[in-house]
Design a protein that fits this description.
Order of helices and strands: HHHHHHH
Distance between the termini: 43 Å
Strand content: under 5%
CATH class: Mainly Alpha
CATH superfamily: MFS general substrate transporter like domains
Structural class: mainly alpha
CATH topology: Growth Hormone, Chain: A
Radius of gyration: 18 Å
Oligomer: single chain
Helix content: over 70%
């Protein structure tokens, strides 16, 4: 991808803001899962286990998303170079959204047995791949559009989205 210059039509401030907002949305979905894992997933997906063990297993499914992140960065980094980062960033948002919606619609362990936790883990892998691809792509896009002396500053904007997504989740649960 050719490096942008400030004279081009795309504003580096818009790119920085968009990458931050994208990261915020992705991480909001990612962190909301942690809340659900701690509160209800042991009761919905791991009822065949002791309550404490079910909670630990629910948190293990939370960890699965973190373990999948490097694969997302590899996959979407590869295709971002070939197809374009913007297309890949939109796709990662879609993947994360689909994973989140499907998790919300999953039948429980009582309804479909072991398929419920298996599908939960599969959707968590999907979420991890999505957030891994989004984060790396957002940083690269922000840096590619940044002026030469400000690449570190603009490259930090996606990181602003991570705590923003977490804080948004905290604020929403307080309401």
């Amino acid at each position: 991808m050719a490096r942008s210059t400030p004279s081009e039509s795309v504003s580096v401030k818009k790119v920085a803001l968009a990458s931050s907002i994208g990261a915020s949305i992705e991480w909001y979905d990612f962190f909301i899962y942690g809340t659900a894992a701690g509160l209800v997933f042991n009761k919905l997906f791991f009822t065949n286990l002791d309550s404490a063990v079910g909670t630990l297993v629910a948190f293990a499914t939370f960890a699965v998303g973190f373990l999948a992140r490097p694969f997302g960065s590899l996959i979407f980094g590869h295709f971002g170079d070939r197809i374009g980062r913007k297309k890949m960033l939109i796709l990662t948002l879609f993947i994360m959204g689909v994973g989140t919606v499907v998790i919300g619609l999953l039948p429980t362990y009582d309804a479909i047995g072991l398929w419920a936790p298996a599908l939960l883990v599969l959707m968590r892998v999907l979420q991890g791949i999505g957030v891994g691809g989004e984060y790396g792509g957002a940083v690269l896009m922000a840096v590619e559009y940044a002026p030469a002396g400000r690449r570190g500053f603009y490259g930090s904007w996606p990181q602003v989205g991570v705590p923003a997504g977490c804080c948004w989740r905290q604020a929403r649960s307080a309401w």
